Backbone:
């Protein structure tokens, strides 16, 4: 029997936490709730979790600090931020610190549950995909990716990537020359394809270009195919 997935919710609004707990328990997840940031951080550090659902504005320790501390831990825990801070700046800061997803309040509980399930499917798929590989590294031109260590380098220089940037680059590198629409990328990399979230793909591609392109304004690796989407050309082979 498959082991029950454990989800830690760090949220000071008890009503929101209770509502999330009800819906997630219906999906047979084990749920633990902490209303204070310091209490949640202590549970996060002491126990293994399959997903962390994290508010930003918390008493004790704020959510951004918890996210930062989580990404410094050797164990990788997928993070979904839920916050009343809905500006693009706050979203980008959360994603830069290593969050896997970000929902602004008020949000649909059913959508959050769908995203959590999609995130777990993606994590499981990545784990299964790396099992049994004699050589897990992937080289495309001057780009080298290690999916097990979740590291990437360009011409020998390490790339500083957020978890979702890494997943996007890894997906592109596994499919060189193929054209993917924004909705297709959302489905393949984020694990969901809700309309209205295509801008998330644009934002991540722009940030990824800034890290791997010699001139992000004239990209030759992650190329826009007008009217269709994007395709990846290995660094050193683009023209």
Residues:
């Amino acid at each position: 029997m498959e082991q029950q997935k454990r989800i830690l919710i760090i949220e000071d609004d008890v009503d929101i936490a209770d509502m999330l707990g009800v819906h997630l328990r219906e999906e047979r997840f084990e749920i633990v709730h902490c209303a204070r940031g310091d209490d949640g951080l202590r549970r996060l550090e002491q126990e293994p979790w399959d997903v962390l659902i994290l508010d930003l504005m918390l008493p004790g320790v704020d959510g951004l600090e918890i996210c930062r501390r989580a990404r410094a831990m050797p164990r990788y825990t997928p993070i979904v931020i839920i916050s009343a801070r809905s500006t693009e700046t706050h979203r980008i800061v959360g994603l830069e610190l290593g969050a896997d997803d970000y929902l602004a309040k008020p949000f649909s509980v059913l959508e959050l549950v769908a995203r959590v399930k999609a995130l777990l499917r993606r994590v499981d798929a990545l784990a299964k995909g790396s099992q049994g590989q004699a050589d897990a590294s992937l080289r495309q031109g001057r780009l080298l990716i290690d999916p097990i260590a979740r590291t990437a380098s360009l011409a020998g220089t390490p790339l500083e990537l957020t978890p979702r940037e890494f997943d996007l680059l890894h997906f592109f590198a596994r499919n060189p020359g193929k054209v993917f629409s924004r909705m297709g990328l959302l489905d393949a990399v984020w694990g969901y394809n809700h309309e209205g979230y295509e801008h998330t793909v644009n934002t991540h591609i722009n940030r990824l270009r800034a890290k791997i392109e010699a001139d992000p304004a004239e990209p030759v690796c992650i190329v826009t195919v007008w009217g269709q989407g994007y395709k990846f050309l290995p660094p050193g082979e683009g023209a």
About this structure: The chain has two domains: 6-129, 135-232.
